[in-house]
Amino acid sequence: MVIKMKKMILTILLFLCSACVPLPHFETQRPHVSGILIRNGSPLSEATLRVSVGGHTDWSCSKAIIVSKTDSNGYFDLEGDKSFRFFRTVIGDPFYIYQLCISTGDKMFLGYTARGVGYPQDSLTLKCKITPDSKSVDENTPISEIHKFAICTPGI
User: What's the CATH number where 102 sits?
Assistant: First the structure.
């Protein structure tokens, strides 16, 4: 009995020292993103939206993992992603980064970008406005300036 107890305590200590414990759970990898796209005060239909995850230089979302279009009323709905994990880290959280890109014809706009430590929120609702002052982005846009070009804000 004492030997079994010692083995169990040793096993628990080994898991804690390895910074992960067996705890089945789901982790949000990419939030569910929905909202509306407006250009010059009117809903914009048939705009292409792309979500790219990871990589801080993919501002054109060329490596998009999900692509969708706005409907006739300018609304969009992009599915999120949750992954099942058996082990849970105890020490240290992952770093995440994702961006939403919007293309209308020949112009690409950075809609929204988020980055942080931990896990992204489960869902995000955005209001996106393209105005005559909105600046398009491309692979030559300096990374230090990219955050200034976002055309979406949380909430409708």
Answer: 2.60.40.10
Under 8 Å CB-to-CB from 54, ≥6 apart: which residues?
97, 98
Q: What percent of the chain has pLDDT over 90?
A: 18
Q: Is the CB of residue 49 less than 8 Å from the CB of residue 96?
A: no
CA distances from 118 to 91, 114, 115, 130 (A): 11, 12, 9, 31
Query: Domain count of the chain?
Result: 1
Residue 93 burial by CB count (10 A; 0-12/13-18/19+): exposed, middle or buried?
A: exposed
Q: What six digits make up the tokens of 78?
A: 């992009």
CA–CA separation, 37 and 45 (whole Å):
8
And the tokens for 67? Answer: 């692509």
Tokens of 44: 């914009």
* pTM across the whole model: 0.74
In this predicted structure, what is the pLDDT of residue 29? Answer: 74
